[in-house]
Every structure is written in C-alpha cells, then in structure tokens.
Design goal:
alpha/beta; Rossmann fold; 7 helices
Length: 164
C-alpha cells in the first residue's frame, strides 16, 4: 500500500488522460453501446482517469480504490477536468460494504487483480463485483502478462497477438 501512496503523484505522468481517451474511448463506446451500459463502477480507479473519461463520454461512472492517496489525486483530477464524480475508499474484496446500487458495468483494469494472492480473496472480489452488477451487466477485467513482456522485450501487444 505504501507504494501507491508514494506513486499517486507520479502515475499520471506515465499515462496521460488525453492519450488514454484517444486510445480507449472508441473501445468503451462500442462495448457500452452494444450492452446498453449507463452506469459504471471502476473498482480500482487509481487516479480516476477512466472515471473521468467515461463521465466525459456521458456515462455515470464512479470510482473506488484502496489507496487514499490515489483517490485524493482522482478527486483533484476530476476537478481539473470539470467532472463531478463520486470516489470511495474501498478494497475490491469489500465492494458490497461500500456500494448498495447496481451497475451496468464494473471494471477492474490496470492489472489490479494480481494484487490478490489467494484464490479465496480473488473469489471474494469477483463475487462482490457480481453482486453489484445489474442482471445484464458486464464485467471488464484486465491482467497483463508481465513475464511475457519482459521475456519478449516488447512494450505493447495487440489483443490478437498470441505468439510467444
């Protein structure tokens, strides 16, 4: 946790919101349109970039994160970008304690799930996400294969790239 407290101020220098918007907005627009998504929870929101982007795209997006420093940065980023978004401190294993509403989409991206070291914790997190999804809701998970990235010495992989 201390790592994220110190990393919060540096994170946005690695990935700018503007670049993320250019790269990812079309993907989310298509996915959410196809699935009639209106409400979104980013349950490992970090500095809030996805929450801000999705609110700018007219979705009602909220964020949660375990790190108070990341959420302080998320709130500051929201203000800078003129977005009113709700952020809550929450471990993604305990989402149902902090949210009592259903979402059309829940996302846990940025390689957050590997922070859980046991099957029990992973199961608890996924069950909580499931409980907060609307009946036709979608779950978006991301996990990067860093061992593969290091082995192949590549920074970027296409989603269709299965070599290696």
């Amino acid at each position: 946790m201390r790592f994220y407290e110190e990393f919060a101020e540096k994170y946005d220098r690695l990935v700018s919101l503007e670049n993320r918007f250019k790269r990812e907005s079309g993907f989310y627009q298509r996915l959410f349109s196809e699935n009639k998504v209106r409400t979104v929870l980013d349950c490992a929101c970090g500095t809030g970039q996805h929450v801000i982007m999705l609110n700018q795209m007219r979705y009602k997006a909220k964020g949660s994160d375990l790190s108070p420093a990341m959420l302080r940065k998320a709130e500051a980023n929201s203000e800078v970008h003129g977005v009113k978004a709700e952020f809550k401190i929450s471990d993604f294993r305990d989402l149902t304690r902090n949210f009592d509403e259903k979402f059309d989409a829940i996302m846990c991206v940025g390689n957050s799930l590997p922070h859980l070291f046991s099957d029990k914790d992973l199961t608890k997190a996924l069950r909580g996400m499931h409980r907060l999804l609307s009946n036709s809701g979608i779950l978006i998970l991301q996990q990067r294969n860093y061992d593969r990235l290091v082995r192949l010495q590549r920074r970027i992989f296409s989603r269709l790239d299965t070599r290696g």
